[in-house]
Amino acid sequence: MHKLKGIKILIIDDEPNILEFLEMGLINEGYEVQTAGDGLTGINIAKQFHPHIVILDIMMPGMDGFEVCRLLKKTENVSIIMLTAKDEVEDRVKGLNIGADDYMAKPFSFEELLARIQARVRNQFPHLLGEVVIGPFHLDDGRKEIMYQDKVLELSPTEYELLKLLILNQGLVLSKSKILDKVWGYDFVGDDNIVEVYIRSLREKLGDKEHRLIRTLRGSGYRMDIV
User: Fold this and answer.
1) Which end of the chain has less neighbouring CB within 10 Å, N or C?
2) The domain spanning residue 16 has which CATH number?
3) In this structure, are 79 and 170 located in the same domain?
């Protein structure tokens, strides 16, 4: 389980089963959650609740998700993940053009949704990430310190930033180029094999001899798997 303190999520969907499933799952992950079964109700709740993240269905009777997204972006500092039953490029483009921050097609993996929520929080609300607990990891960004299984890891500044990136994007595949951009910076001109060197060092410090925590996906990159 991971817990991100003080993060509020509003789910707007006209399917009761999805509302119930997501509400229970996200509350269990430590989020503060409210739900709405239609767009107008969702907008009214947002005015009082002020969510950080809105999970928003596109196809709803009455006011559809596109209109809800447009109105919420006018009044709230919010990150919106849109859901649709069809993976239509036209819908995705329309949603992104009116301010949606991310997009997922139904059916979707709950684990992937959690990873996308984390990514949105990291990008738009980094001040909320002072202390994060994800599985056996406790990340304290103020102290630049990561605990694993209740023990503080001895990390160099670069190792800290790399492990932090992997933890906060758990479940998502990160390419070497993306890791280089995020950890070493866009102007890095060295050998990209440096990523492998640091991954190897992190695995040693985590006792990850069988690569079950930090997985290598050949030709794609690396993925942190936290049970």
Assistant:
1) C
2) 3.40.50.2300
3) no
